[in-house]
Amino acid sequence: HFAEASESDSAAPEPKLGRTYDPRPEREHVRGRLAAMLSVLLATMALAPFMVVVTGWATWAEVEGPVTLGFGPIVGLVGTVLGFYFGSQRTDS
Question: CA–CA separation, 31 vs 35, rounded Å?
């Protein structure tokens, strides 16, 4: 019931493109945006508790726990992403 397919029947035609795809520009754009967003997150995590205490919305005792809990992992994440971003830039060029 099934006819045997010859090699010419099963081979897909190769696409005709003007140039080969180079993912580097898009990849660098995404890496740059990710590094920028995480840097903004780190700056916000550093400045927001200070602003909350200065404006009187909360005391340092109320803010210290969440800041201590969240700041370390964010610093580690941002450091890893920025190190990967700048390290990969050096090897790509």
Answer: 6
